[in-house]
Amino acid sequence: MAPERSGEAAVADPAVNDWAVVRPWRKTKRLELIERRMAKTADERQSAGEAVLQHLLELIDAETYPSLGLYWPIRGEIDLRALARRHVAAGGRVGLPVVVRSAAPVEFWLWEPGVPLARGQWDIPVPKERRLVTPDLLVIPLVGFDRALYRLGYGGGFYDRTLAAATPRPRTIGVGFADAELSTIHPQPHDIPMDRIVTNSLVLPRASTPAQPS
């Protein structure tokens, strides 16, 4: 099924590069996609989450990616806490993103089953203790995406800043629902494409299989 494109007329030309035009379009599209996601039933979310988890288990293992950056699900996002538990059980490390200051890269703090949590920015749970993790791979939530592997997020720019500042840069997999696909997000110079995008019905490589970490 082709992705919905309602509300895209204002920037229908893929060559549009005017941030003053693209920015309000993204805000509108972001709200539409979050509303659609939140309207899904618990069974729909669980079914999609199980499909995404199976795809990710084929792509991720603790030997290839010892340290994994994940996220705590909010606002109807795909719930990958089972992946976090499996990764730790296999001997890997998991870090959750923590906003330490605005307009800056996030840090990843070590998460393990049973670790004490606190409320971070936007009341998202984060580990209480600052034990830093440097992820080999980031699994990043998508609000929307396109087939050029660009991600529409919540608009804060935290992941773009984190990836731009990271040396070496971790591999990236964006995850979300298949019906969050857009014809384009109208990427801007600050946007960084994912290496892969995984949804309940799609696994998209960027150009070829991502290189393994050295």
Describe this entry's structure for a reader.
It is a single chain. This protein is globular. With about 210 residues, it is α/β, with parallel strands linked by helices. β1, α3 (about 80-90) and β2 (about 95-100) form a beta-alpha-beta unit. The longest helix has 20 residues, at about 20-40. The model is unreliable at about 1-10 and about 205-214 (pLDDT under 50). The relative contact order is 0.17. The chain is built from four helices and eleven strands.
Spell out the blueprint of helices and strands:
Elements: H1 19-38, H2 42-59, E1 67-69, H3 81-89, E2 93-98, E3 107-111, E4 117-119, E5 125-127, E6 137-141, E7 144-145, E8 151-152, H4 158-165, E9 171-175, E10 196-198, E11 203-205
Parallel strand pairs: 1-2, 1-6, 6-9, 9-10
Antiparallel strand pairs: 2-3, 4-5, 7-8, 10-11
Quick structural overview:
The protein is built from four helices and eleven strands; from the N terminus they run ααβαβββββββαβββ. The protein has 214 residues and is α/β, with parallel strands linked by helices. Residues 1-10 and 207-214 have low confidence and may be disordered.
